[in-house]
Amino acid sequence: MKILIINKYGPKHPKTGGAELRLKEIFQRLAKKHNIYLLTAMFPGAKKKETYKGINIIRLGKKNSENTIRIHFLILFKLKYFLKKIKPDILYEDVSVIPFFTPIFYPKQRKVIIIHNFNKSHFFKSQRFIFALIGYLAEKMFSLLYKNEILIVVSEWMKQELKKLGFKNVTKILNGVDHSLISKKKYSKNPIILFLGRLEGRKGIDYFLKTYPFVKKQIPNIEYLIAGGEFLFANNNISLKEFKKANKNKDIEFLGYVSEKKKKQLFQKCWLYVAPSRIEGYGISVLEANCTGTFVIGNNVNGLQESIKNNKTGKLINCKNTKIFSQTLVNWLNIKKLEQKETNCRNWAKSHTWIKATKKTNQIIQT
Are 45 and 126 found together in one domain? Predict the structure, then answer.
């Protein structure tokens, strides 16, 4: 079977996130049974065409650009050509923020759609107004145009959200996690709190940074490690570089993008992992942290309410409330307390596998 995937970002793109990780993990496995093609954005240093882990990648856009906006138009206008050329049995649309509106342009093409979450008003916390408005309206159009399509979601909250809107054919397939991350803790000498993810409003990085003065006052040797690619801080349209310059502090270290090896080391040595997202599909990074036995402090929002087992693998709180967030961090910066939760964390992470997710996805595709 031939499967053509369309997604904003693909493997190796510097702005990849959980959606792209899921795509890679599932379709590198399905590539053993099917012919997989991926239409996605070009980025500096990438090849226009390459086969990566069995996935035939075709990148569109300018070579010296990440094509974040341009890719939506390129796929819209060039998809017809690739459908004729590849003649896929299935068009798999991975909706990463803005859909490609395939039901309008290709109503007869057999399709499977995956959508990770609705961002709703949270667009305006991470994007400039015009882009936020486009995303917000596109999401509203998705609710109208995709009701007759076969849909995959990654969480129960999203499944129920779609059912309320009148969607009939919706299947929940949970994310997996890389079990090579399963390992023992190696707590650092000084307490470390780790944030890992895109540095944008939706991920709640601003909530986390606001806790520092309060936590520092009670735990003088605290360290904040922040790993993730740079995005604009939408509320004031300043870059992360400018933000760091205005907030210099030896106890807050911005690491930028980190490798998989480095990520594992960070999870192992940190005392706590934070997931203060304003909205989340499910939260793969939460499971990755749990693999190493790391306890998670997360925002009590959709998605995280499912990926965090409250008081067992993490603690769900109102991260918007700086006082509550800060005090919770202080309360849990206790190795004896954290060691008691390590087994819970690892067992929960082990229950999520990419093999199960791949098997269920294959069933949907072949139905």
Answer: yes
Partners of residue 151 on adjacent β-strands? 113, 170
Total domains present in the chain: 2
- Evaluate whether 39 touches 67 at the Cβ level (below 8 Å): no
- Low pLDDT (below 70) residues in the chain: 121-127, 230-248
* Amino acid found at 272: L
Q: Tell me, what's the pLDDT at 23?
A: 97
Which residue type is seen at 165?
Answer: L
Q: Where are the alpha helices (DSSP H) in the chain?
A: 18-30, 70-86, 102-105, 129-145, 156-164, 205-210, 212-218, 240-246, 260-269, 284-291, 304-307, 322-332, 335-339, 342-350, 354-366
Residue 88 near residue 4 (C-beta atoms within 8 A) = yes
What pLDDT sits at residue 298?
Answer: 98
Helix or strand run (H / E) with residue 315: strand 314-317
Q: What is the pLDDT of residue 128?
A: 72
Closest CA to 122 of 214, 198, 24: 198
Structural domain boundaries enclosing 219: 179-350
- Reduce the DSSP state of residue 194 to 3 states and report it: strand
Residues 163, 202 share a domain: no
pLDDT of residue 237: 45
Does residue 156 sit in the same domain as residue 196? Answer: no
CB of 78 within 8 A of CB of 101? Answer: no
DSSP 199-250: BSGGGTHHHHHHTHHHHHHH-TT-EEEEE--B--BTTTTB-HHHHHHHT--T
pLDDT tens across 320-354, in order?
Answer: 999 999 999 999 999 999 999 999 999 999 999 99
Considering the domain architecture, whether residues 155 and 273 belong to the same structural domain is answered as no
Query: DSSP label at 152?
Result: E
The verdict on 159 and 269 lying in the same domain is no
> 86 and 158 share a domain?
yes
Cα–Cα distance for residue pair 367/363, rounded to 1 Å: 6
